[in-house]
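Q: Please design a sequence for this.
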C-alpha cells in the first residue's frame, strides 16, 4: 500500500513537472527568442513528437469561418506563425499525449485509468483558453498605454499633425506590447497609406478604445484640431485604467495556482485509490 501511495504521489509530481516544462504557453517575445536558437534534449524531442501528431490531425480539423478569423487575428497579434488549423491540431496532440501519460498509473492501480480522460480534458480546456488569455492580456497591455499615448498626442499636436511623427515619438516610451504593434504600424505607414496602416492596427487589436484613438489620429492627419477630443479621451482612459486595476486586484484570490491544481489531483488520486481498495475488498468478500 505504501509503495502504491508513493508511486501515485511521484506520478502527480511528474505530471506537474511535465506541465510546467511543456504546457505553459510562452509569451510572444519568448517564442521569437526561442526560434532563433536550437533547442536540444527533451524539449526538442517533445516538439518533434507534437509536430508529428499534429501533422496527422491537421487535415481533419474543421473550424467555423467566424472562429477561424478570430484565431487568425489573435495569432497575428501574438506573433505566432501557426495557422488556426495547426494551432488546434497542436491542442489535440497535447491532449492525446496527456491521455497516454494518464494511463501510466493504471498499470499499478487499474481504477486510476479514469485519471487519463480527466487529465486529457484538463489539458484540452487549458490550452483552448490559452490563446485567448494571451491575446486578452496583450490587448489589455495596449489599452493601458492609451492614456499616455493621448497625452503625447496632445503635446505633439502643438508642433505637428503628422500621425507617423507623433507615433514615432511615442514608440521609445511605451511598453513591449504597444511597441511591437506600433513598429508594424509605422512600417506600414512608410510603405503605404498612413490611414490604411492605422486601420490595420485597429483591426488587429479589435478594441473600441483603440478605435477611438485611430479615428482621432486619422482626423488629425487630415488637418483637424482634436486637442479637446484627446484631452477628454485621456481622462476617460485614465478612469478605465483605474477600474481595470481594481478588478484585477479583486480577481486575484479567485485564480487557481499550480499548487492548488496539484493538490486537487493528489486528492483525486487518493479518492480513486480508496475506491479501488473498497471494490477489491467487496469482490474478495463476495467470492
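A: Design:
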Amino acid at each position: 500500500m505504501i509503495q502504491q501511495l508513493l508511486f501515485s504521489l511521484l506520478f502527480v509530481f511528474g505530471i506537474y513537472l511535465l506541465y510546467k516544462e511543456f504546457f505553459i504557453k510562452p509569451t510572444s517575445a519568448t517564442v521569437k527568442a526561442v526560434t532563433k536558437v536550437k533547442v536540444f534534449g527533451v524539449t526538442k524531442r517533445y516538439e518533434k513528437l507534437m509536430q508529428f501528431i499534429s501533422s496527422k490531425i491537421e487535415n481533419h480539423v474543421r473550424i467555423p469561418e467566424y472562429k477561424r478569423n478570430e484565431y487568425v487575428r489573435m495569432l497575428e497579434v501574438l506573433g505566432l506563425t501557426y495557422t488556426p488549423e495547426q494551432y488546434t491540431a497542436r491542442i489535440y496532440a497535447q491532449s492525446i499525449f496527456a491521455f497516454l501519460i494518464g494511463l501510466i498509473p493504471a498499470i499499478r492501480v487499474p481504477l486510476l485509468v479514469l485519471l487519463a480522460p480527466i487529465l486529457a480534458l484538463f489539458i484540452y480546456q487549458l490550452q483552448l483558453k490559452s490563446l485567448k488569455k494571451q491575446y486578452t492580456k496583450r490587448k489589455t497591455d495596449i489599452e493601458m498605454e492609451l492614456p499616455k499615448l493621448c497625452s503625447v498626442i496632445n503635446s505633439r499636436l502643438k508642433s505637428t499633425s503628422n500621425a507617423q511623427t507623433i507615433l514615432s515619438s511615442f514608440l521609445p516610451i511605451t511598453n513591449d506590447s504597444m511597441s511591437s504593434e506600433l513598429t508594424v504600424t509605422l512600417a506600414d505607414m512608410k510603405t503605404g497609406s498612413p490611414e490604411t496602416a492605422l486601420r490595420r492596427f485597429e483591426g488587429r487589436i479589435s478594441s473600441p478604445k483603440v478605435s477611438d484613438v485611430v479615428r482621432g489620429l486619422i482626423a488629425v492627419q487630415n488637418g483637424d484640431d482634436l486637442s479637446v477630443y484627446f484631452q477628454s479621451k485621456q481622462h476617460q482612459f485614465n478612469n478605465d485604467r483605474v477600474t481595470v486595476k481594481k478588478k484585477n486586484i479583486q480577481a486575484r484570490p479567485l485564480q487557481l495556482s499550480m499548487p492548488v491544481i496539484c493538490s486537487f489531483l493528489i486528492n483525486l488520486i487518493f479518492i480513486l485509490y480508496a475506491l479501488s481498495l473498497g471494490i477489491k475488498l467487496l469482490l474478495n468478500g463476495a467470492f
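Q: Thanks. Anything notable?
A: The CA atoms of residues 125 and 252 lie 20 Å apart. Residues 115-144 form the longest helix (30 residues).
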